[in-house]
Amino acid sequence: MPIALAKKFTSLLDEVYKNSSVTSDLTSDGALIRAGANANEIIYPQIDVSGLGDYSRNSGYTSGAVNLAWKTTAFNYDRGTKISIDAMDDEETIGLAFGQAGATLQREKVAPEADAFFFATLASKAGISKVQETYASAEAFLMALLAAKNKLDEDEVPEENRYLYATPTLLNGVMALDTTKSREILAHWAKRTATPQTRFYTAIDLLDGRTADEEAGHFRKSAGAFDLNFMIIHKSAIIKYDKHVVGSVISPDANQNADAYILKYRKYGIVDAYANKLAGIYASYKAAEEEGA
Question: Are residues 215 and 188 in contact, defined by beta-carbon separation less than 8 angstroms?
Fold first, then answer.
């Protein structure tokens, strides 16, 4: 594969990932991320200030305080794979075998796993709002959304930049109502995104690709985990940052082990929540008897 074509191919991989991920809107601004003392850590500021006191006409203001603490958190996602396509297989499919393999990796493996890791990581956080509930109808789901909005409002989470993620079944049910109330409730979110149940769990296992029963890699729903109904995430409440994403192509001429093209892909990053902004995350999940319904 010519170098120019290889470069064009790897840029297309990035585009496929962005089109396939449902959480790309929540990627953090890299300018806000600072390196920690260790290479696998980042630090972020958390600020607390004291409140108002009585003003005295004799002594003036009370003395307040500002506590600026730098919190440290470690990168928690480091995944990769290497795909090999025989040169003749690629030639006999007019170059489609390698290209389709790379695109399929992004669309069917990389994007779903990254989304599933994102939701499961945030859903497992202690201190966020969590509700286990069953909906008998689309109207009941609307009421659950309203209850979630009330909770965020009471917790003083800013109205703007609240992102709603819900299963397609639930969102489609509300759209079918086509009522003023349904349109009004759905209009409150910065963006609402249909999230397939297959990447929407309270906990997942990342398969290592090496040990027995995990050779195929990817992820699966953890034992004892629940299906999520919906999540509301305030963008400023979370950290979602990729420190290192690389997709490199090795041509058969440069492959010392086989007459084959190789695609190497690695993604290294972090998903976390700010300790003082956990109120900005709300998770609704199904009761155990609903699983698979």
Answer: no
Distance CA 31, CA 129 (A): 29
| CATH of residue 185 | 3.90.1690
Alpha helices in 3-76 (DSSP H): 3-20
- Please state, in angstroms and as integers, the Cα–Cα distance from residue 125 to each residue in 93, 113, 252, 272, following that order: 47, 19, 46, 9
Instruction: Give the predicted TM-score (pTM) of the model.
Output: 0.84
Enclosing H/E stretch for 173: helix 168-177
Exposed / middle / buried, residue 279 (Cβ in 10 Å: 0-12, 13-18, 19+): middle
Q: Quickly state the pLDDT bin for 14 (edges 50, 70, 90).
A: low
Contact present, 263 and 101 (Cβ < 8 Å):
yes
CA atoms within 13 A on the CB side of 176: 10
Domain assignment of residue 57, yes or no: no
Asked whether residue 45 is domain-assigned, the answer is no
Helical (H) or strand (E) element with 110 = none
Domain that holds residue 274: 3-21+76-290
Structure confidence at residue 94 (pLDDT): 55
Q: Are 163 and 193 in contact (CB under 8 A)?
A: yes
Written as one letter, the residue type at 47 is I
Question: Could you tell me the two tokens for 216?
Answer: 């195929």
pLDDT band at 255 (very low <50, low <70, confident <90, very high): confident
Task: Give domain status of residue 249, yes or no.
Answer: yes
